[in-house]
């Protein structure tokens, strides 16, 4: 069912972020600072804590609610007795929201980009070439100017001859023109197909063909790639490309593109400006976007997102960001073809904020593409609000820790003391964390770390995959900004739950957003029931205004995952298993399918991998274990007694009993090599191949309850029985 949230968002980002981003934090601590910090930091907090400690009363964030449809345990946001549908009256579509927000904020900055000052290539010692950019300040356009550009683009599309009954697609990295093109299409009631810029050719051809896209909007750097596959792009008539600032645009139209009308984005804007066309605005239930997500299996699926879905999520997420306002600055750098970024930018639009565009390659002063001695996007923009995926936050944490470790000595001790004090303050009482102690630590220790991301961050939205408790705490403390964890899927236009800024717990994803209800429906096979004590558990089902219209041209899959109840409310069955805490916050505890998304966004199909690994002669039975908090898998293996003993004999290995043989490092290594070979033969990816294995001497039998009568493994039971073994494999 809902196996497509997140896509492979994390993997490209992980590679791009500069490894040395955090290396300059600890360079110059003064000795005075350290001594002062220790004195002030140890004496004052002790006094303060004893004054302010005292547990705060638990806030009720979600409350049970009666709903229609399948039986279960349903919860709504505690603040909203009626579901929120629009940010304000009249903003029922994205086109209306855009127009009204642009009018309201017309003279304020909206979209900004950095000017390219120069570009150079440096050659590394191994001969590889790296592009380095020298980027200038942000240059801004106001809400009024952006509105005009979107109107011009909309008119230009019509003048260009785009058939208004057909769709347009955007295939590009995140940039302001992406957003302008989207809004332009909406003003002519054109549905926009979005495709991940990192999707493979087959997926690209499939998506464009399935939706019969006639106008493709892309970056000039994509033109070559498109020309190469043009024979598969039968429905395309127009190509509109975004020009690159200050560099040559490679638009040499090759023969195979001769059937296409190829135009620059600015030409289309000009065309529309000189001959405007009346808008033809969409309606609330109209299809705004068909968003292709890299599903866990096979070709990507297109999720049909209505205008109503987008404005509902935007309206409710806006209530989650404390006091979001016009003066807030948002750094936009995640892929817009991912629901999380599109939802976030819609929130900023609704709130009248400024959005400065950047990229993962230029995010910080030491990012890969930033020319040495020049500034990264965050340092120049100084954002107050940032979205991030766990891979990025993990990276920040690892970088800072590595730096602390390398620095050693006083700085390391200081960091550790301060970190521990802050941690206990955060965990003990929120008040303590806001006290004088906090201010001191901020000035003395954390200011430098914060400067990595500009220094002015006051709120981080994290989504796309689960964030580990460690990283959440670390970023919380070091960045000094609350992190809200979002849980949502493309199918619910990112909107499902959102943790609140004053919730200091870890590992939970908050109460339902005000635009939807969350219901837990019992999943008997898995042993999760909505009547479970102490917490109701079950499959997470989302109902309300953010629930999308279904999968494009795929009624079967739509019927499997979506249901409409007797009151007309749409529900989406996520396939995730959750439990509700007494305060109405959701925790994701499992996944219904045997498909697991690893920490960096790759999917592992447990059954597929197990089947492949079972071809090794050593394997009698195997259970692969993957966990969204890790980026590799591990496996429990019951080896074949016969084959293993034979090998031991030949290898001259002595052992008392089979159990001891299984524990020997040589044995484990031998079996693991055999598994790697099997994985290679089956063309498994590295992340699918178990990084560590545990050999278990005893067979899994139906009697022991570890496999079914048909000898199918029972994951939940195995996981429970070998909990400690699994934990050690990850340790
Ligand atoms: C495009 O879709 C049509 C059906 O709508 C199909 O017949 C055709 O083979 C597809 N072309 C490609 C290149 O996938
Ligand atoms: C261009 O279109 C014509 C007719 O639609 C077709 O016969 C021809 O093969 C196309 N050329 C290319 C290069 O795709
Ligand atoms: C928008 O376009 C769709 C078809 O794509 C159509 O069904 C709908 O009626 C149009 N909406 C308006 C308000 O014209």
Structure description:
- This protein is an alpha/beta fold.
- Among the domains are: 100 residues, Roll (Luciferase, domain 3), CATH 2.30.38; 189 residues, ANL, N-terminal domain (Rossmann fold, 3-Layer(aba) Sandwich); 133 residues, ANL, C-terminal domain (GMP Synthetase, Chain A, domain 3, 2-Layer Sandwich).
- It has 23 helices and 28 strands.
- The strands form five sheets. An eight-stranded mixed β-sheet has the order 4-3-13-12-14-15-16-17. Strands 9-8-7-5-6-10-11-20 form an eight-stranded mixed β-sheet, with helices on both faces. Strands 1, 2, 18, 19, 21, 22 and 23 form a seven-stranded antiparallel β-sheet that branches.
- The longest helix is centred in the first third of the chain and has 22 residues.
- One of its GO terms (cellular component) is endoplasmic reticulum.
- This is AMP-dependent synthetase/ligase domain-containing protein.
């Amino acid at each position: 069912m809902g196996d497509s949230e997140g896509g492979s968002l994390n993997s490209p980002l992980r590679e791009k972020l500069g490894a040395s981003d955090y290396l300059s934090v600890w360079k110059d601590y003064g000795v005075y600072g350290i001594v002062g910090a220790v004195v002030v930091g140890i004496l004052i907090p002790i006094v303060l804590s004893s004054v302010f400690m005292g547990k705060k009363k638990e806030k009720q964030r979600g409350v049970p609610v009666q709903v229609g449809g399948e039986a279960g345990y349903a919860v709504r946001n505690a603040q909203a007795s009626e579901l929120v549908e629009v940010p304000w009256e009249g903003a029922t579509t994205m086109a209306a929201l855009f127009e009204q927000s642009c009018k309201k904020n017309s003279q304020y900055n909206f979209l900004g980009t950095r000017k390219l000052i120069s570009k150079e290539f440096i050659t590394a010692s191994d001969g590889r070439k790296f592009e380095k950019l020298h980027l200038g300040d942000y240059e801004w356009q106001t809400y009024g100017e952006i509105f005009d550009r979107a109107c011009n683009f909309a008119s230009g599309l019509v003048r260009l001859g785009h058939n208004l009954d057909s769709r347009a697609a955007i295939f590009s990295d995140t940039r302001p023109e992406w957003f302008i093109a989207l809004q332009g299409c909406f003003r002519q009631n054109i549905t926009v197909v979005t495709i991940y810029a990192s999707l493979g050719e087959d997926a690209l051809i499939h998506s464009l063909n399935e939706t019969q896209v006639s106008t493709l909007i892309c970056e000039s750097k994509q033109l070559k790639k498109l020309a190469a596959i043009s024979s598969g792009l039968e429905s395309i008539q127009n190509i509109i490309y975004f020009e690159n600032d200050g560099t040559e645009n490679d638009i040499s139209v090759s023969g195979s593109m001769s059937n296409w009308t190829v135009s620059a984005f600015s030409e289309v804007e000009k065309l529309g400006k000189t001959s405007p066309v009346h808008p033809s605005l969409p309606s609330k239930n109209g299809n705004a976007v068909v968003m292709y997500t890299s599903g866990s299996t096979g070709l990507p699926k297109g999720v049909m997102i209505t205008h109503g879905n987008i404005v509902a999520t935007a309206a409710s997420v806006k209530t989650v960001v404390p006091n979001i306002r016009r003066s807030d600055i948002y750094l936009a750098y995640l892929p817009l073809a991912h629901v999380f970024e599109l939802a976030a930018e819609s929130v900023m639009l609704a709130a009248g904020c400024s959005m400065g565009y950047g990229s993962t390659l230029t995010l910080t002063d030491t990012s890969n593409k930033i020319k040495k001695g020049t500034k990264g996007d965050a340092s120049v923009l100084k954002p107050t609000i940032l979205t991030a995926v766990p891979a990025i936050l993990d990276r920040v944490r690892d970088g800072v820790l590595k730096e602390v470790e390398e620095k050693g000595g006083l700085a390391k001790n200081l960091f550790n003391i301060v970190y521990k004090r802050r941690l206990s303050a955060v965990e003990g009482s929120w008040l303590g964390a806001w006290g004088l102690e906090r201010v001191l630590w901020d000035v003395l220790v954390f200011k430098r770390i914060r400067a990595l991301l500009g220094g002015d961050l006051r709120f981080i939205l994290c989504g796309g995959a689960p964030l580990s408790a460690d990283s959440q705490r670390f970023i919380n403390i070091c960045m000094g900004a609350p992190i809200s964890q979002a849980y949502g899927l493309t199918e619910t236009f990112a909107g499902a739950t959102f943790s609140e800024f004053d919730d200091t717990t870890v590992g939970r994803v908050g109460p339902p957003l005000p635009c939807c209800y969350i219901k837990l429906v019992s999943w008997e096979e898995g042993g999760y029931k909505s009547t479970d004590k102490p917490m109701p558990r079950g499959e997470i089902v989302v109902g309300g205004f953010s629930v999308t219209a279904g999968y494009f041209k795929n009624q079967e899959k739509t019927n499997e995952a979506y249901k409409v109840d007797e009151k007309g409310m749409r529900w989406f069955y996520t396939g995730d298993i959750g439990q509700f805490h007494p305060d109405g916050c959701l925790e994701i505890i499992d996944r219904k399918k045997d498909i697991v998304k690893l920490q960096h966004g790759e999917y592992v199909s447990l059954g597929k991998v197990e089947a492949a690994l079972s071809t090794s002669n050593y394997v009698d039975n195997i259970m692969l274990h993957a966990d969204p908090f890790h980026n590799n898998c591990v496996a429990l293996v019951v080896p074949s007694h016969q084959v293993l003993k034979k090998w031991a004999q030949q290898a001259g290995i002595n052992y008392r009993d089979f159990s001891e043989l299984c524990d020997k490092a040589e044995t484990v290594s031998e079996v693991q090599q055999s598994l790697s070979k099997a994985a290679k033969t089956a063309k498994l990816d590295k992340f699918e191949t178990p990084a560590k294995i545990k050999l278990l001497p005893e067979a899994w039998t139906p009697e022991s309850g570890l496999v079914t009568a048909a000898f199918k493994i029972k994951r939940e039971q195995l996981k429970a029985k070998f909990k400690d073994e699994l934990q050690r494999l990850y340790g």
